[in-house]
Amino acid sequence: MATPIFLSSALRRFALVLCLGALATPALAQDEGSGPIEGDVVGGIANPTSIAIPDMPTPRGVDTPAGNTADLGRQVAQVVEADLRNSGFFNPVARQLLRRVDMPQVTSPDYQSWNQVGAQNLVQGYVQAGTNGRLTVGCYLYDVFAQAPLERAGYEVDYADWRRAAHRCADMVYARLTGEGAYFDSRIVYVAESGPKDNRTRRIAVMDTDGANHRFLTNGQSIVLTPRYAPDGRTITYMSYQNDEPRVYLYDLQTGRQRTIVDSRYMTFAARYSPDSRHIVFSMAANGNTDIYRVAVSGGQAERLTNSPGIDTGGSFSPDGRSIVFESDRSGSQQLYIMNADGSNQRRISFGGGGYATPEWSPRGNLIAFTQTGSFNVGVMRPDGSGRRILTNGWQDESPSWAPNGRVIHFFRSPRGEGLPSLWSVDVTGRMIRRLPTPVGASDPSWSPLLD
Amino acid sequence: MTKISKTAILLAAGSLLALGACSRSAPDELPPPPVGSNDYDTGPTGPVPGSRADFIAQAGTDTIYFDTNMHDVDADDRAVLDAQAAWLIANPSVRVTIEGHCDERGTREYNLALGERRANAAANYLAQRGVASSRMTVISYGKERPVALGSDQASWAQNRRAVTVVPM
């Protein structure tokens, strides 16, 4: 019994991976003129997996600060469903076709009936109020065809964090069925933009990957730009025009305290963390020349890494921390270069196809995302400059940021004319592209690590 | 007039402009001699001497314009900056901020650096004409503060600029 089940699920997974491999074709066209596509998957894989995610029962309906556990069971299922649908890999069974599940069925599914509604996979679970003031969510993944459990997990969270339990459940399902790393239980920091084009209000904002738990970190009095999440999730860095002195700040998410990363009489900008969150690479413009520097997050003297007469900016560490990719116009146009983390061995990696800017090294290390200047689209290339692919096709797309799994990229898209920019995500295949819902205009997304 | 004529030139050279970094401004020529006196008579109803309105009235404009991706100060710009320098020399107590700006067709971070280049190019020229560097502060706004809101060559030409800001 065990062997055939293993084979069945292994084969299915193999088939899905094969399917992804065949998708390495260029960009799906996006028609900016067709109007906003709020939160919908525009592209998608040819045969997304059909999956049923029924409401999760509770052993006892208990009122909690986040609502009754019976209601939470329904909401958790909906969050899981939205995450999986938005990934582009899954086609959730319509909710009106879903049967009610009671507690005993959570661990003993009625495979026959799930088969009848066309579900290939099934996610069941339960929500239970604990005696310790916390919420427990059980999450079970089944293979309906093979009639076998695939994986299960339990999450205990504070009531206020019930959505995180749902995201972690979705992450478990996504990782198990796609073979990719998890990414739903993470956050995004970005620049919220509102007001007319010649008088924009910009605020740093953070939200969950699905747009929930949105909050503003700055009040909009100063221009703020290019926030980045620390890989350890504790701080963000961003640039602010506070006191008419554009400088990079370090903001502690726990305490709300902030300080500049270096004392400088010149503009500092374009900051990014090292993978261990202990250093920040940034740019400083002095007397018409911009170079890249590195400074410890704990403080101290900045170390200068480049000294070309051109504009060197946009530094981004490799995941092993040994290299930095950056952009420079030293050749006459913006191109990508890689150097060792101490600034030595600088070499150009991008050739042909126009200019390249805003590189960000994938957390997997295998790809570098960039903005192609001129055409203003987002693409990826390997660290040796080969395998260049353009993934988007907007009027003006820029500033790619990787998801923790190195599979999905966020970027921002500006419309032609006076409209507000918006956040979008695109899969590395270029097939799955969707707009992220934000309360106001949005730019400069930066993905947090997976939360602990 | 300088602004309009320059915009027209840029429009006429549209295809050349698209080459961005390849385009060049007018060939260098000797700047006009500095203006050594300040014999302006604005009359009893004119702007308050030393004010921003006075600066704009006397210097003609507070703004110079740049070609795509460029930061060099060309002949048109020098004429404007010479007039600005004359006013600044005649009003030695005034401190100014030189803002550098870019059009939207550049990435955000690069444009911050490019705007800083432009502001410095203007400030360096003013310094050459005798304005003390200690009186000038440069700041780049990149593409974050456009004055023309369109997404077209004419708007972009107006946004690629350095502005000498005299306090109100």
TrEMBL record, chain A:
Major localization listed first in the record, in broad terms: periplasm
Gene Ontology CC: periplasmic space
Domain annotation TolB N-terminal: ranges: 40-148
Keywords from the named record: Cell cycle, Cell division, Periplasm, Signal
Pfam families (alphabetical): PD40, TolB_N, Tricorn_N
Localization terms from the record: Periplasm
HAMAP family named among the record's database cross-references: TolB
Family stated for the protein in its record: Belongs to the TolB family.
Protein name: Tol-Pal system protein TolB
